[in-house]
Write a structure and sequence with these properties.
Elements: H1 2-16, E1 27-32, E2 34-38, E3 48-57, E4 62-72, E5 75-85, E6 95-104, E7 111-119, E8 125-132
Parallel strand pairs: 5-7
Antiparallel strand pairs: 1-5, 2-3, 3-6, 4-5, 7-8
């Protein structure tokens, strides 16, 4: 009898973990196009310089999450990652923001920055390339 009671109690505890009544957050992350990128004319090897990017949040449901920065050989891919709240009442106002990030020139080759500009009609990513030489 104790085993059956213990088994039923265990099933009750296990079932309580499957509570589907809890509201789960409804959000997603999106890459936003960079409107403008301001880079230095050149880097000095071993020194740190700053790049400024300007972007637009489409409405009040969007907020800045982070700067996406990927390194591939001498190329750097840069985009803005935004946090988007879904199923919310959002303001329609466009919000323009800018962020800065530091880059340490640690290679002798020129840096090729690819700033994300959006996607084309086929869904392929579009980038603006900026080459920054290293002195």
């Amino acid at each position: 009898m104790k085993k059956i009671t213990l088994l039923l109690f265990g099933l009750l505890v296990f079932y309580s973990c499957f509570n589907n009544d809890i509201d789960t957050p409804n959000y997603q992350f999106e890459y936003l196009p960079i409107d403008e990128a301001i880079t230095p004319a050149s880097f000095i090897l071993g020194e740190i310089d700053t790049i400024k990017v300007k972007y637009t949040l489409p409405n009040g449901c969007y907020s800045f999450d982070r700067i996406y920065y990927e390194t591939k050989d001498t190329t750097r891919i840069v985009a803005i990652t935004a946090f988007v709240e879904l199923d919310q009442n959002c303001t329609d106002a466009l919000i323009q923001e800018e962020k800065k990030f530091a880059v340490k020139a640690s290679q002798e080759e020129d840096y090729v920055f690819k700033f994300f500009k959006g996607t084309d009609s086929n869904g392929d990513n579009i980038f603006e390339e900026v080459i920054v030489p290293v002195n």
